[in-house]
Specification:
eight-stranded mixed β-sheet, 6 helices, alpha+beta, 251 residues, archaeoglobus fulgidus dsm 4304 fold
């Protein structure tokens, strides 16, 4: 007989398999085929920031920026209480519900500002079962999504080896990248030098309704610093919201 925790994992595994059947790993929008992304006007970013010392209460943040000039068009911050436990490989079941909530509020109140593509602070296909947070959120929102992680997820044979570090050293200018190949040979993402001033790459992977090549080009075009501006602004604004609400730490 399975324990409650084992039953939960089994249920989440089944849900991931079902959602993965709806995943699209190719471009679906006309603007994605343009070298200059002609027709793209709104890019979104989402993030969750936690109160220090509290892994249950967080600020769910959505920003929508204009493209290509990265000016703020919309922002929403909402305090949420996470109810699902954290289990490695199943982060989406914990973080997706509040992020979907702020997206649905925008869709209901100001649909003209819905992002045409969403940047997610986390992985997409570059995941244990090739269905990370960016895939989960992309499929459920039906938005083109790009996963951008700041740290390497060591998965499917991709490890922080001497060869990996050597490849990072070979990234000389912004826009340089190299593939993240699983042990099977399947390309799960790209390590991207996103700005000339950054010594560390970001790890880009497909979330939904976009090709890897397009995701990498778009990520680079949205970077003023190491992290693409939609994610960077979501992170800055969520942390500032928490500082204002809880200047002395957790209530």
């Amino acid at each position: 007989m399975l324990s409650p925790g084992e039953e939960l994992v089994k249920r989440w595994e089944r849900e991931q398999v079902c959602l993965k059947e709806r995943l699209l790993e190719e471009n679906t929008e006309a603007w994605q085929e343009s070298g200059s992304f002609s027709g793209l006007a709104r890019v979104g970013g989402v993030d969750l920031s936690f109160i220090k010392g509290d892994d249950l209460n967080a600020c769910a943040q959505l920003v929508v920026l204009s493209y290509p000039d990265m000016q703020l068009l919309y922002e929403d911050s909402e305090m949420v209480t996470l109810t699902a436990p954290y289990l490695p490989g199943y982060l989406a079941f914990r973080e997706c519900p509040p992020l979907l909530q702020v997206l649905k509020r925008l869709e209901g109140e100001k649909p003209c500002l819905m992002p045409q593509v969403l940047f997610v602070d986390g992985n997409g296909l570059f995941h244990y079962r090739e269905f990370g947070l960016a895939c989960h959120l992309g499929v459920l929102s039906d938005l083109p999504c790009v996963g951008v992680a700041k740290n390497l997820l060591q998965v499917q044979g991709v490890i922080r080896s001497e060869d990996h570090l050597s490849q990072i050293s070979a990234l000389k200018k912004a826009g340089d990248s190299f593939p993240l190949a699983a042990a099977t040979g399947r390309i799960l993402g790209q390590a991207l030098k996103s700005s000339d001033s950054s010594s560390k790459p970001v790890y880009v992977s497909v979330g939904h309704r976009i090709s890897l090549n397009t995701a990498v080009r778009l990520t680079h075009s949205c970077c003023r610093y190491r992290v693409p501006e939609p994610i960077r602004q979501a992170d800055i604004r969520s942390r500032e919201y928490l500082r204002r609400r809880f200047p002395s730490g957790p209530p």
